[in-house]
Amino acid sequence: MIRTARVEDAETINKLNKEELGYEMPLSETTKQLKYILAQPEIYVIDVYEEEGTRKVLGYVHAQKYATLLSPTLFNILALAVSSKAQHQGIGRRLMESVEKQGKERGYFGVRLNSGEYRNEAHRFYERIGYHSTKWQKQFQKRFSK
């Protein structure tokens, strides 16, 4: 079943980020960020897929309202992760459908996302569920020292 994430899901989300997406962050930081995100439902969506019976979280999707002067408002997918033990069971598709449904309910134009150049399996997944590549781009960052 799909439901809104809760603070107590932070540990599982943190593990999914590390094991499935390759992003490692201290659990305390994930928990802090999750609290921040959940406090702003008008901007963010963070849904989890919870297995019936066991109530174990097997995946999650995180989206943000994308409002620019360049296009109509969209949802921007910031993360989609499904446990490798539960992939190819339709969980990712259901999570994406949840975001799409919420976007339609809000009157948004659609959904956009970025996917790493090397994530070929993810690219095939997105194409199978109706997404198409619009361009290739490089990402630039400038990090601030503490």
Automatic annotation (TrEMBL):
The keyword Chaperone does not apply. It comes from Enterococcus mundtii. Signal peptide: none annotated. Residues 1-146 form the N-acetyltransferase domain. InterPro entries: Acyl_CoA_acyltransferase (IPR016181), Bact_Acetyltransf (IPR050832), GNAT_dom (IPR000182). This is GNAT family acetyltransferase. The keyword Acyltransferase applies. It holds the Pfam family Acetyltransf_1. It comes from the Bacteria. Keywords: Acyltransferase, Transferase. GO terms for molecular function: acyltransferase activity, transferring groups other than amino-acyl groups. PROSITE patterns: GNAT.
